[in-house]
Amino acid sequence: MVVLLLLALSAPTDLSARAAFEQGSFLFKSERFEEALPYFEVAYEKSQHRPSTIFALAQCERKLKMYEQAIEHLEEFVRVAPSRQASKARRTLSEVRA
Asked: Are 41 and 66 in contact (CB under 8 A)?
């Protein structure tokens, strides 16, 4: 948890939402989840909670076993995403809750 706090304190707040999302995605694909999290958090805030960013943030939280936060963001995604994408999130929500 200390590592996550330190990473959050060094979050790349000067990046655009797109740049933060792209960097987070790169780190996530490299399985560097702790490093990806602050980028997704910045993208989430700066994008005004864009659905793709919500889902990416939730998936990163899930990988970090931050299940309460992941559930919150998956529920938010289900509320705002197009129905076809929301059905995938519902399945993921079921897995996280299990």
From this structure: no
Structure tokens at 73: 């963001």
Cα angle, residue 67 at apex, residues 10 and 78 outer, rounded to 5°: 100
Q: At what angle do helices 51-63 and 83-97 cross, to 10 degrees?
A: 20
Distance CA 27, CA 89 (A): 21
Rounded to two decimals, the pTM is 0.82
Tens-digit pLDDT profile for residues 46-83: 999 999 999 999 999 999 999 999 999 999 999 998 87
Beta strands in 1-98 (DSSP E): none
Is the Cβ–Cβ distance between 79 and 71 less than 8 Å? no
Residue with tokens 């740049």: 19
